[in-house]
Each structure stands twice: as C-alpha cells, then as structure tokens.
C-alpha cells in the first residue's frame, strides 16, 4: 500500500491497497496522521522515519510494527521517499508499506531453530567446528561451538578471530603430526582424524579430532568436525599400559616390557650401526635369605635392590625384572667399556646395601653377566650370552661381573 503525506505526516492521499491492508477506510484516513498506524504512535518508528526524511531530505527504509484497524499487529517493510517539489512548494513524502508478517514469522521461527541448535551444540560433550584452509594454506575457524571454553579455556570468538590462538596451544611434540595429518586430509580428502595434546592452564588435555573435508571451487578446503576431550580415557589408557608393563613388586619394567622396549632400542641403535650393551643380574644366595628370614624379607630385598639399581642408571636405560630374582639392563647410547664401569659401580652400590630385617642388618650381593647386541644381532641371543656370562660370574665366586666372549674386558680397556 502507498500513501502521500506532508512534512507533518498528515495523509494527503492513499491508494486502494491501503484500505485492504490497513483495514481503515481510505477516505476516513485522509487528514489523519500516518503515525496513528504505528503501535507506538508518539515515539514509534514511523515518527522517526518522518523526522529523518524531513530533516535530511533523503529517503528512509526499514522495518515497522503497525496495527491494523482490527487491532492486529502487522510487520511492514516501509520506504519513505521525499517527492520532487518546485522551490517554495511544501514537502511531500511517498510512503510505501509492504506486509512482511509472514517473512517476520518465518525469520523468528528460523531464529528459534538456530537458538535451539546452538543450545544443543553447546550441550554436546565436545566442540563442533568448521575449519577452512585457503589455497595459500591459511587456517581459519568459521564456526566453533561453545564447548571450546571447557576444552581449551578459550572463547569460540577469540579462536574464530585467530586460529593461531588455539594452534599455539597444541603441545610442541604434536604440532608436526597435526600439520601433516591435516595436509594429507586436504590432499586426499580422506577424513581427518588425530589425537593430540593441548597445553592449558589446567595442565595437558588430550583431544581427539574427527572431521570430514570437502573442496570448494575456489580451491578452499573445509572440514566439518568435532573435537572431543579424551583426557580421562587417555590417562586410564596410560595407567593400564603402565600396569601391563610394570612389575608389581618392584615397580620396574616387567619381562614383556623389557622385550618390547628393548627391541625398539636395538632397532634404533642398529639403524645407526651401533651395538647395545646388555647385562643379566642375579642376587647371590637369595634362596638362603628367603629360607632364613622369610619370604617377606626376600620381597623387601628385591624392592631395595631394584631401587638401588634404578638409582645407578640413567632414566632412559632399560631396567627390568625378567624372572624371580633375575633382572636385566639395556644401557642406551653407551659403549661396552662405559657399560662395564657403570655396572661395576652398580655392583658396589648393591654390596653397600644394609637391609634392616627385624633389627638385623643383612647385606646383599649381585652377580652380573655382560654381553652386547651387535648391529645385526638379536636381543634374545645377546640375552642368552649374558646368561652364560652370569653363570660364569656365579661359578667364579659371585659378587662380580663376567662378560660374554668378545666383550672388552677391563684389562683391555685400561691396556693393563
Ligand atoms: N621373596 C621372594 N623370593 C623369590 C621371588 N621370586 C623368586 N624368589 C626366590 O628366589 C630364589 C632363587 O634361588 P636360586 O635360583 O636357587 O638362587 P640363589 O639362592 O640366589 O643362588 P645363586 O643365584 O646361585 O647365588 C628362590 O628361593 C625363589 O623362591 C619373589 O618374588 N620374592
């Protein structure tokens, strides 16, 4: 509908559609102010639109809330247009109003739907995101649900403004894997899946990401995905792995872990053409200690012995209980000569133990058999050689080191 009004908003003329859409008889409205259609006739948007056009002599357009003659509110899209006038002629405005109630209702419905969806997404146990990589390789988050605050103590808005604010928190050791896996997914368009750590003020959080990529015509790759907090699950997994690889009595590695980790150490050294010194250790006369002082005293001796040995070694040397009172050591990044010296010091440290059993001080000694795993050799074979050397150490009087054939003896090292 359209009306012509003067500078005070008084209706001078109205088209036939006016009657149909406003419900007011056309003739009755001529001479009345247009503001009477507004739900707020004194201070509503129609008053403001009129004031705008009169003051600036430019058009105005925007949404208005009006009331029909029967009292029904109607949302209108209004355009107020000053008409051309001759100099001296009074100002007149052409006002067109279009009923947008249906559009408004559907927008309101969409808005409610969107709010419902937002509420649902922020309630999910994770972060829903849309990540975008431009053809130049720049990353930007186009969407992040609210869960990010709980996951990374960062607001979605901050990370949408700068993806770097989140990427900078990825644990240094995991950044390479993140970049590589994302690049692979961008090239192959296979799903992007990764587990990585985030450094947060609450400590390390483990995150699992799963996202589906697609490529736009402009070469941009977009991933729709979800980030899940798997910290609890990871801690549980690490605890289980520790339990599976740990000897319950002494807390050192068990036989199975020794072979698993030992194989990795061997393979690493072999790639660099280096051999790895290895030792088998067995407490002397342990049966006598058990039989004389009881099994509990034996257990205590094993615990003190294990702690003493562990303290003599570097953190990354492998030390494991591989049988009852049998232990094994793999010395990482150590020459056979240096290994002999380390193990001799260890033997002395064990000899210095004073075990307090019900007020009686008991001493312990250990015999050691040494061998090396050559670059082409196997862990099992070297262990059997160390075992034979250990047998020799026992045979030669215990509380001593003996080495497998070919192992540099101390005399050879010192040249004496
Ligand atoms: N208390 C305790 N004893 C253990 C454990 N595992 C094995 N043993 C005992 O360790 C003893 C090993 O004895 P032997 O193999 O005869 O060796 P030994 O008495 O140390 O003699 P040598 O090795 O020749 O010096 C046995 O009595 C086993 O029962 C354990 O977990 N706790």
Describe the structure concisely.
Its EC number is 2.7.7.65. With 416 residues, the chain is α+β, with helices and mostly antiparallel strands.
List the helices and strands and how they pair.
Layout: E1 2-6, E2 11-14, H1 16-22, H2 26-29, H3 45-56, E3 60-67, E4 73-82, E5 92-99, H4 101-123, E6 127-133, E7 139-144, H5 148-152, H6 156-161, H7 164-167, H8 172-188, E8 192-200, E9 203-215, E10 221-229, H9 231-245, E11 253-254, H10 255-271, E12 276-283, H11 286-293, H12 295-312, E13 318-321, E14 326-330, H13 336-351, E15 354-357, E16 360-363, E17 366-373, H14 379-395, E18 401-403, H15 410-414
Helix pairs in contact: 11-12, 12-13
The structure holds guanosine-5'-triphosphate (GTP).
